[in-house]
Structures are given as structure tokens and as C-alpha cells.
Design goal:
Length: about 160
């Protein structure tokens, strides 16, 4: 229960920018999410974060969510067969351009919005959703609490 699990992050940057958080920062945000929602912290975890542009995120959103538009983050949870236990959480695809634009529109720092997208995406990988109002409230409260731990303001205000 100490949080001494190993975290393996495969960071894939299709976009080159100095506004993309470092591997170490991303790992810190991911670890905080997992510590906040998991009872046991002794299993290793592995996930991929792919930072992409508008065209790739729109193509993925069209293919997998049947929405022909760009979005900020897509989550692809790994679904292991019942008889196999693997440490894979899944993949997050984050659109660099949309994160930057939304941060500006919402008056947030770029880092704060990146943190929100990572926290939001990891919660999706762990089964949280916002399809109905009750689920949305639970997920948003968790996001607010986790982000507060980094002195990041409530992203929903």
C-alpha cells in the first residue's frame, strides 16, 4: 500500500513542442491518479501516451467513437482476457493543438490543462466515465481532488 509500484510510460510524440510535459511530470500525474483510486499499490502499471496533431486525433475519433471531429483526449483501456493478468492500463491519445487552444480559451496555464487531460484520461482507463450525471459528478470530483494535490484549480469552474 506504499505506492512503490513501477510505472512504465511509453511516451510517443508525433508533435514536437516545448509545451509537452516531460516524461517525469507525466509519470507523477499518472501515479497520483492511481494512488487516489486503487486500494492496492503493489502491482506495476504500464501505459502509452501518444501526443498527436489534429488530423490523427480526428481520424481516431471518427474510427472509434464515430464522431468526425477532433477532440482533446481519447482513452483506449486495455481489456485483458480473464485468465491473463497483465499490468497494461491502455493508451491515451492527446491532441497537442487542442490542449493548447483550450488552455488559452479557458484562461488556464498550459501545464494545468495538460495535467487535467492526463488525469481525465487515466480515470477513463480505470473505468470512470461521464456518460450520465451521477458518473460525471463522481469523475469530476476525483479530478478536482487529484488536481488540487498539484495546486491546480478546479478545471470545471
Amino acid at each position: 500500500m506504499s505506492g512503490d509500484f513501477k510505472l512504465y510510460l511509453d511516451l510517443q510524440k508525433v508533435v514536437t513542442s516545448d509545451t509537452i510535459p516531460t516524461q517525469k511530470t507525466l509519470e507523477l500525474w499518472i501515479r497520483k491518479v492511481l494512488l487516489a483510486i486503487e486500494k492496492e499499490h503493489d502491482e506495476d502499471r504500464e501505459l502509452t501516451i501518444r501526443v498527436v496533431g489534429i488530423d490523427e486525433i480526428q481520424s481516431l475519433n471518427r474510427t472509434y467513437r464515430h464522431q468526425n471531429k477532433a477532440t482533446n483526449v481519447l482513452s483506449f483501456p486495455f481489456e485483458s482476457p480473464a485468465e491473463i493478468s497483465l499490468p497494461l492500463l491502455g493508451d491515451l491519445v492527446i491532441c497537442h493543438d487542442i490542449v493548447i487552444e483550450e488552455a488559452k480559451q479557458q484562461g488556464k496555464t498550459i501545464e494545468a490543462h495538460w495535467a487535467h487531460m492526463v488525469v481525465h484520461g487515466v480515470l477513463h482507463l480505470k473505468g470512470f466515465d461521464h456518460i450520465d450525471d451521477v458518473e460525471a459528478e463522481v469523475m469530476e470530483l476525483l479530478e478536482i481532488k487529484i488536481l488540487d494535490g498539484f495546486n491546480i484549480a478546479n478545471p470545471y469552474q
